[in-house]
Every structure is written in structure tokens, then in C-alpha cells.
Amino acid sequence: QYPCNYKLINVICVGGVDHNSKKTDYSNYGKTIDLYTQGNFGSFEGTSFSAPIISRALALIIYSHPNWSQKQVRQELFK
After folding, report:
1. Which of 3, 28, 38, 62 is the most exposed place for a label (fewest CB within 10 A)?
2. 77: which residues sit within 8 A by CB, 6+ positions away?
């Protein structure tokens, strides 16, 4: 699936897991997924709910380290 198949530094592909860290049936899938995070909130579910969690983490890293390169930010996120 695209854009996940593009090997670009500014694309982070997110998959969804349940409360037991098991990949959900609605999750993105494949070798191109960078990170998995919880994908359900109340009665809502989907990777559309996983992406904001990663976006928040990225925002906090960038805020804390405004001079870091994209590569450094990605490395910190993936720790």
C-alpha cells in the first residue's frame, strides 16, 4: 500500500494493535509498517486513531529537540 511502500524519511507507517498488543484486523500490514500502537478508543477503532498517537510523540520530540534532523527524530521515535 502507498504511501507506506515509498522509502521516504518523511513517511512513517502506523499499524494498530489491541489492548493485548495483538495486530488488529483493521490494521495496516506488511513489511513497511514502522510502528504499531493502540488503535481503539471507546467505540471507535482503526489506524486513523493510531496515527495521532505517533504524531503526538513526534511533536514532543521535535519540541524538545528543535535542531535535530529528521533522521535523529526518527531514531528517537523508534527507540
Report:
1. 3
2. 12, 35, 54, 57, 58, 61
- Whether the bond between 3 and the residue before it is cis, its omega within 30 degrees of 0, is yes
Q: Return d(Cα 40, Cα 17) in angstroms, integer.
A: 8
Are 65 and 76 in contact by the 8 Å Cβ rule? The answer is yes
pTM, 2 dp: 0.77
Q: What is the pLDDT of residues 6-47, one digit of tens each?
A: 888 888 888 888 888 888 888 877 788 888 888 777 777 777
The mean per-residue pLDDT over the stretch 45-52 comes to: 79
40 closest CA partner among 26, 61, 59, 54: 26
The rounded distance, in Å, linking the Cα atoms of 57 and 60 is 5
Question: Residue 61: CA atoms inside 13 Å, Cβ hemisphere, count?
Answer: 18
